[in-house]
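Morning, I've got a small favour to ask if you have a moment. I've dropped the whole record in just underneath, so have a look.
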Amino acid sequence: MAKKDEGQRREDQAADQPTLEAGLKAAFERAPQGQLVEHLRQTLGLDTRILLRDGEDESSPLTLSVGTREESRAGRYRLQGEIARGGVGVVLKGRDDDLGRDVAIKMLKSDFEVHPAMVQRFIEEAQIGGQLQHPGILPVFELGRTGKGRLFFSMKLLRGQTLAKLLAERQTLEEGRLKLLGVFEQVCQTMAYAHAKGVVHRDLKPSNIMVGPFGEVQVVDWGLAKVLPQGGSAEERHAAAVQVEDAQVETVRSARGDSGSVIGSVMGTPAYMPPEQAQGRVEKIDERSDVFSLGAILCEILTGEPPLTGEKADVVAQAAAGDLKGAHDRLTGCGADRDLVQIACDCLRAPLSQRPRDAGKVARRVAAYRDSLDEKARQAALEAARASAKAQEEVRSRRLIQALAVTVILALALAGGGYLWLEHQRMEEVRRASSLLNRAVDQGVAELSRARASQAGAPAWTRAFAAEEPVRNLVQSSSADPESRSRARDFLGDLRSARREQAMVARLDELAFAESTFDDLDSWLRMDEEFRRAFSEFGIDFERQTPSQVAQQIRQSSISLQLAHGLDLWLRTGFYLLLQGSGRYSLQELRGRIPALLQADPDPLRVRLRRQAFQGRPALGELDQIIATLDWDAVSPRTLAILVSNLIMARDESRWPQVCRRGLRRHPDDVSLLETCAISYRRSGRPQEAVRYYTAALALKPAISGLWRSLADALRDLGRLQEAVAALRRAAQERPRLARIHYELGQALLQSGDAQAASEAFRRCLDESRASPPTGGSTPDWLKECEALAR
């Protein structure tokens, strides 16, 4: 009877399947454009509406209400209002209701729809944006027509400020110069990519550079872009061009082999325009024309003005004549570093042949200049230390001079001039001491800014912290004025905060690798306690703060990403302990902490992945969608590590190796990604690959005990016992007080046949366990085995 019921059930399912497929087919075919999700909800009862929370800067000003001048829809997008209006196009804010995201819609003005040249240029702008795949260039999503036939293309909606606004808000030329130089370097890298693809922007200027709230920099408005024939302009066909895969961008015009530019036409912004462009010699325009504009932007960063100034007609005349003497004079006298000034001057050469060949060469020179600041900063720290020692010596000498001067002062006072002489000496000493102190503070501030912006890690911070002693000595021993002393104390306070933050980063970094490989409950309990203590000492306490307060504190920190990742690992530790029945946490308590993590991380993609990880087994379909739309050039290695972990949790055996290989090609020196991939290979029964990745990680961080222990496990899987013993000895050297490591070492020694050394390791295990007893309340099995084998 049961078999009959089962057979009937299968027949019913088979009968229902075509009906379900037909229903889905009908639902998709009849869905109005841009309303697929709503249509599915009405027809099939599927309710899938995921809306991520908005960031603080995610509002876009709308200057016109919908329907006053434009249509209400553009293809799949619902138009919400106008953002900006230019000479030939209008930019509107659109809403993609199916995907739940805002976009920018650029629409050609109806007046120009009858002009083939303008239509062609509009389509080419969309084609160029669609093919240039770089974090510094706005992605174009779709090219189409509205219901009334208006041309439009959709693209990413920009957030942030223009470089022009950032430059205008400066109080002094020196203010934020290092940050602005970092923005400029990213612009150079973006243009180097465009030049490698054969595209010239032709309208580079600060107002066409957007700086986002999270440091992203994007070059916008490619409406005047020119696609060069292969090899550049005619007179430079044999120049050494950068060769990359699929290097050429094609448009409907370039695909025909026709440049489409008209000799004599002048397009661009005169103040930033090279002579050949101002003269209308379009056939001469190539990558070096953009290089000139890059030099013009750098000129404005350094001098506060573009190279050409004055009335528009005068500026156009100067540009056409290549009159750049005023710009070079201003650059020479601006007070910036000579190397930086030279880069700007070399770009701002009137003859094409005298400029750097493309933006890539400019980017390399800017990067080399920024790297040279490290050495200059080190020398500055040494100079500050010498100045501090000299100041202390001057204090001792001054006390002696002041004592000897008393007699002279009295004599001069009798003559009526003693007071004036003494006051003059005192003021001169205050001025000299203040100058020394301010110079030391300036050097320290530069080092601290450099360290915060640097990817170099420990060396940069060592140089920054070295600035503390000279400043502190000068504050204590000099007679500087109150304003200088107050400024120095503020700097010392910033340095203390930075030292505290970096200590927290190092602590979390150690916890991320130190014991995460141990499978015994006691080790996980210890790790949980160390996480709790680290966050509590940093001022984050779930027992006294709400999840929203924790999230706000993390987001306001300059190490917010590291804190968010540490919180993620702590939560994973808690869930592991819950599964092991430790009784330390309840399910409700752990779930209550998840919102703090999701609110703390500013990256929507990471939040999406973290949400999947903590809701149970991640869905492969959603992970596939993430991989398919991933921007490999922009995604961080930490995000890729979480993606790999999610794929492992989803029990996928085909996708995660591809993510590992592709991610490590871009981030070969990220230890977190290397370790995650190594763990994945070992769990999938491929220890040989795991050894390779662990070895690469240890080459970068040789002091991480947990990595040595993990390497030893993989080596034991391969039967390479002597190498495993050596790795465990190194693990014990890094964490000598951890009993579990000595137990693991004893087991490996026993397996390799060295019973005497194994017995010594087991005795050391017992000694360390007595010094630091297990936290679980009872003796773990491995420690009982250690006691038996030590006899």
In short: Residues 13-20, 53-70, 231-265, 414-419 have pLDDT under 50 and may be disordered. The longest helix spans residues 359-414.
